[in-house]
Specification:
The protein is an all-beta fold. The chain has strands at residues 2-10, 13-22, 25-30, 40-46, 49-54, 70-77, 80-84, 90-95. It has an eight-stranded antiparallel beta barrel with strand order 1-2-3-4-5-6-7-8.
Length: 96
């Protein structure tokens, strides 16, 4: 399932990414380097939570809270999915 993300927000700052979810593996890319920091890893869905486990190595010169990892609350309405983490970052995803 290919997911193209129209919107990512951390605080007031928006970003653009693309994400693919296939059989427990996610792969992503960003328009702006390390905002947010998405590469690839594994994911598990449990009810309304998606748990991401990043498998990439990152350098230290940026905010590591921007790495797509950990637990995210997931809601789906029509063809739009919203992922929100505990610090308030969110992805608004359109399904292709």
């Amino acid at each position: 399932m290919e997911i193209i993300q129209d919107f990512f927000e951390s605080g007031e700052r928006p970003g653009e990414v693309s994400l693919s979810f296939i059989d427990g593996i996610y792969i992503g890319a960003t328009k702006f380097a390390k905002f947010p920091a998405i590469s690839e890893g594994n994911y598990v869905v449990n009810n309304y939570t998606i748990s991401f486990s990043n498998i990439c190595i990152w350098t230290a010169e940026f905010d590591w809270s921007l790495i797509l990892t950990g637990d995210w609350r997931f809601t789906l309405q029509d063809n739009e999915g919203i992922l929100t983490n505990k610090i308030g970052d969110r992805y608004v995803l359109d399904k292709n």
